[in-house]
Amino acid sequence: MPKRFATIFLLLATSLVRGQGAPAAPAGTPDQLRFPAIEEFERREKVMELRNQTLLHSQEYQQRLREVNAVFTAMGQLPKLPGLDEKILLAIEIQRDIAVAVDGLKGDQERCRGILELVADISKDTTMSPDIVRYLKGVRDTATNMLREQTSQGNRLRLAGENLKATMAQLPPPPAFENQLGLTMVLVGSGRNAFYINRDPIPLDQLARAFPAQGERPDLPPSLNWAESLHYCKWASENESALYRLPSPAHLHAYLAQGGKLAGPVWTQEIDEPKNSEERAMRTRFGVRMVTLFDADKTLGSEPVLAELPFARYPNLIFHMVTPAETGWWFRWNKLKQTLDQ
Question: Could you tell me which CATH number the domain at 176-325 has?
Fold first, then answer.
């Protein structure tokens, strides 16, 4: 039998033994019977519950402050680390610590609001002693200030997360990375115009993976046409969760200027738009669309960039694709993150 009900029965029994001469309660109003001892017991029970919740919340919040301080200590150490991988590893840990601390603060705020609700409930009793009234006021003031401080700490952590992203965005991308398709992607250029391009031509058997409807494609031609090349870029983007596309002539010029090698003509992303208005009108009339082909060694003509029909194929045509510099940075981030998870 719960303690509360046992106490009620005990007090009732005492009242029956001692209450032979007590005035009878008005008939028909049993809910109006008052037992001061029971009311005092319930009041003390609520106050004890409030006290326990307050102590627990205080301990939890002290732990949260330690977590928040650890985040800002690590943020101060981040710029001092010499290596890129060291900075990324620490940034990953900071990012996780911020998420843990933010979630913890949300729980702290819920508990703090619960304490304030309990204080409001107890304060409805107008028969409390002055000591309890003062205690409740102190708890209410402390909880209100703590709730305000928790909100401030949460805002600080969110700002720290934004600063962390900004700091990491300033780190240089790695000079090369290997993607999930097994391609070595090398960095070309620097700053906002930097990009990655596959260092070696993609073998035909690997290109065939993007065409499951045709099985292993034993009949795969010696090169992909322009539409098939676009399809492979789309397939690679979906499988890698990154943006891949055909290079532009400017991409390929920059790659060659940096010392890269091209083993043959390469499809580009660009549609060929002739400057001659008559030629443009002729193409429109016959529904002919031309795309640009980059031929650095001029094996197909007298110019390094030439117009070609999108369904054309050449035995020596090779395949390259590019991806933004951010791709290499995030691949490095995810790879290091996996090492932490192991």
Answer: 3.10.100
